[in-house]
Amino acid sequence: MPFETYMKYMENNRDDMPLYLFDKTFCQTAPQLASDFHVPPYFTDDLFSILGEDKRPDYRLVCFLRTSNG
Length: 70
Description:
The chain is α+β, with helices and mostly antiparallel strands. It has helices at about 5-10, 25-30, 30-35, and strands at about 20-25, 60-65. It is built from 3 helices and 2 strands. The longest helix is centred in the first third of the chain and has 9 residues, at about 5-10.
């Protein structure tokens, strides 16, 4: 779904369970955002690092959502 279509959906959305937009490849598609991503201190033990980058589960993502104002 193009982002523009998603934004139109969210502007008119009244669903109890709205669609959310996730991007697990934002570090590749928008590298300027990658430098803003930091793992919180209590999650610094990376047990998936032994799997290598090709087998590790997704751990960085951006979630877009719109909340109601009342």
